[in-house]
Automatic annotation (TrEMBL):
SUPFAM superfamilies: Phosphoenolpyruvate/pyruvate domain. Keywords: Lyase, Magnesium, Metal-binding. Residues 30-194 form the HpcH/HpaI aldolase/citrate lyase domain. This is HpcH/HpaI aldolase/citrate lyase family protein. GO terms for molecular function: lyase activity.
């Protein structure tokens, strides 16, 4: 464990200074594409402006035969495109794979200036982040990069979940963490066969009231991922980094997908993954606060003045803590509106005057 005094020192001579604060750039959707697929590569210029993050995936879902083609395809995409406000990320192969070393050497030296974040799969503990941290510093120095690359961990092993707080705080490069429900389910020996989402068998049932043991009792499906997402959110908030939901594999179930995304949004996640174009608008809708919620938040903030004391608005008590919640919503809205003129217009149109606020009543 490094001394706190050394935490922000570069890990290689000539590497850039680590960031002191993780930049909050909109990342409502991390859109996955397979860079070994030529058709997908040609779509990059049209997809990039529609997403906050475009991610060239090198790991699972890219067949072993295509690993080099995916790496080279991503280099080609990185060099050929100007991504504007859209971030370019990659998911490298896992640290125990035969491909990861070449992934890192090639990507950092060839397109390190275009990449924002390196997503590391199957992170087991802080030691995995330390390894990547030092290697990235060496490669940044070799490539002459002036901006440090950030690191994002996927929470997809039981060990990773048990060590999530250490992972979140392992390096100043740590940008965020995503849930990896498919590998995590396998690692935990859960009995599901899906990529994210719920399961009809995971439920609670109302008590029997008499002879109705076998029928007439309502059941409620539960969220398999609640514990993990909540724990991930706390670990990220504790270390000033950003939590994300992950993939929702039932592409056709756009309603279930929206519900799962919204649960994550309400619990504190800033974004999710999109695996197919149909999920992009769902993520955008869910991870942009609703216009009426933004109007309400702005109204509470205006009525609360310096943020202390208590006021009544529409029969609801507001105080320092609701003020802080409203600041989270309003500040997120401002960040998103700065990038998205349509959202900015919707938020401005919904702004409600605070004149109805009844201070002290
Ligand atoms: C599922 C697949 C095969 C269906 O692909 P398809 O071509 O069969 O689907 P489609 O509905 O027929 O596609 C319609 C159009 O959309 C295009 N398209 C389709 N997808 C995309 C895309 N992502 N980006 C851009 N374009 C896309 C596709 O090329 C087609 O274009 P066309 O109309 O011109 O012919 C495809 O969507 C895909 O490959 N998606 C990405 C899959 C992926 O990255 N999986 C890994 C992440 S999840 C994971 O790893 C788990 C985790 C975290 O590790 C863990 O929980 O453990
Ligand atoms: Mg996985």
């Amino acid at each position: 464990m490094r001394s706190p005094k050394d935490f922000f020192a570069p890990l290689a001579l000539g590497a850039p200074e680590p960031v002191r604060e993780i930049p909050f750039r909109p990342s409502r959707m991390i859109h996955f594409f397979d860079p070994s697929n030529e058709k997908m590569r040609t779509k990059v210029p049209s997809i990039a402006p529609k997403v906050d993050v475009l991610l060239g995936n090198l790991e699972d879902a890219v067949s072993a035969d295509n690993k080099e083609a995916a790496r080279n395809g991503l280099v080609e995409v990185g060099k050929a495109n100007d991504f504007g406000q859209t971030q370019l990320w990659t998911r490298i192969n896992s640290l125990d794979s035969p491909w990861v070393l070449d992934d890192l050497i090639t990507l950092v030296t060839e397109i390190g200036d275009k990449l924002d974040v390196i997503m590391v799969p199957k992170v087991e503990g802080a030691q995995d982040i330390h390894y990547v941290d030092r290697l990235l510093a060496q490669l940044e120095a070799r490539a002459g990069l002036t901006k440090p690359l950030l690191v994002h961990a996927i929470l997809e092993t039981a060990s990773g979940v048990a060590n999530v707080e250490d992972i979140a705080g392992a390096s100043p490069r740590m940008q965020g963490i995503s849930l990896g429900p498919a590998d995590l389910a396998a690692s935990r020996r859960m009995k599901t066969t899906r990529v994210g989402g719920g399961h009809p068998g995971y439920l609670v049932r109302t008590d029997p009231t008499g002879d109705d043991v076998h029928e007439g009792r309502t059941t409620y499906q539960q969220d398999l991922w609640h514990y993990t997402v909540a724990r991930m959110v706390d670990a990220c908030a504790m270390h000033g980094i950003l939590p994300y939901y992950g993939p929702f594999g039932d592409i056709k179930d756009v309603v279930g997908c929206e519900d799962q995304f919204r649960n994550a949004f309400l619990l504190g996640c800033v974004g999710t993954w999109t695996l197919h174009p149909v999920q992009i608008d769902i993520a955008k809708k869910v991870f942009s606060p609703a216009a009426e919620d933004v109007a309400w938040a702005r109204r509470v903030i205006a009525a609360m003045g310096d943020g202390t004391g208590a006021v009544m608005i529409d029969g609801k008590m507001q105080d320092d803590a609701t003020y802080k919640q409203c600041k989270v919503v309003a500040e997120l809205a401002d960040e998103l509106a700065a990038r998205d003129p349509e959202l900015a217009a919707a938020y401005d149109a919904a702004t409600v005057s605070d004149s109805e606020a009844m201070t002290g009543e």
